[in-house]
């Protein structure tokens, strides 16, 4: 993989995503944003300490559904900027940028699979993966998970899901020297982490 070209491509992808969603940075709080964050004193940190962060893990307002990772991220946002929506929305967009990058990297790995050896040139793989990642990242169907602040839970679930798939795809390709990638990172990424933001990824293979 040409890492200079890959990094330039990812940077360009991130710029396009930021341009597409930058108009939402100053949008107001909506619907579940208000009880889940604005009126949730358990998230209103006055000091950023390990004990205070752990206390936000179970600050959800949905009964027995616990989502510690996004709740802690909302608490950090509140500590840094209070009720100013810009910080929350910037984090949501940043997560989506990372997800778009992961879609690109996953597709590059899949198109380089041994069964497709020689089917495509490096340039074709690069541009096909970029086009698909752009279509995914800029598709309006993604809007709610990015512009609806509390739906960071969905974006984070997607983040860990994609990390798991990327690590699994890397395992299928030997590193220089013929050694396989270690499989141990796939277990937490695939099995444990996604359940922290949301309980929708049990379908993760």
Number of helices: 9
On the 0 to 100 scale, the average pLDDT is 81
Largest sheet: none
Instruction: Kindly report how far apart the N and C termini lie.
Output: 26 Å
Q: Number of domains in the coordinates?
A: 1
Shape: elongated
- The assigned structural class equals mainly alpha
What is the radius of gyration? 19 Å
Topology as a string of helices (H) and strands (E): HHHHHHHHH
Task: Write structural notes for this entry.
The protein is mainly alpha-helical. The chain has one domain. 59% of the residues lie in helices and 0% in strands. Helix 5 runs parallel beside helix 8. It starts with a helix and ends in a 13-residue tail after the last helix.
List key phrases describing it:
single chain; 205 residues; mainly alpha
What are the SSEs and their pairings?
Elements (H helix, E strand, L loop, with lengths): L2 H19 L11 H6 L11 H7 L11 H14 L3 H27 L10 H16 L5 H5 L4 H20 L14 H7 L13
Helix pairs in contact: 1-5, 1-6, 4-5, 5-6, 5-8, 8-9
Question: What is the gist of this entry?
Answer:
The chain is mostly helical and 205 residues long. The chain contains nine helices and no strands.
């Amino acid at each position: 993989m040409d890492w200079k070209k890959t990094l330039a491509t990812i940077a360009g992808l991130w710029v396009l995503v930021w341009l597409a969603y930058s108009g939402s940075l100053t949008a107001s709080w909506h619907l579940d944003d208000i009880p889940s964050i604005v009126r949730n004193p358990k998230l209103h940190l006055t000091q950023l300490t390990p004990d205070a962060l752990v206390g936000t893990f179970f600050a959800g307002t949905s009964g027995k559904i616990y989502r510690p990772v996004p709740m802690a991220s909302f608490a950090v946002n509140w500590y840094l900027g209070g009720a100013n929506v810009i910080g929350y929305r910037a984090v949501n967009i940043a997560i989506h940028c990372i997800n778009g990058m992961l879609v690109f990297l996953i597709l590059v790995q899949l198109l380089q699979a041994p069964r497709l050896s020689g089917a495509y040139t490096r340039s074709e793989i690069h541009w096909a993966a970029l086009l698909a990642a752009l279509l995914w990242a800029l598709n309006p169907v993604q809007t709610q998970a990015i512009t609806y602040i509390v739906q960071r839970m969905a974006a984070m679930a997607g983040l860990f899901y994609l990390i798991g798939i990327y690590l699994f795809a890397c395992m299928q390709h030997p590193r220089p020297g013929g050694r396989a990638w270690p499989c141990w990172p796939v277990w937490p990424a695939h099995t444990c982490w996604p359940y922290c933001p949301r309980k929708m990824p049990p379908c993760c293979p």
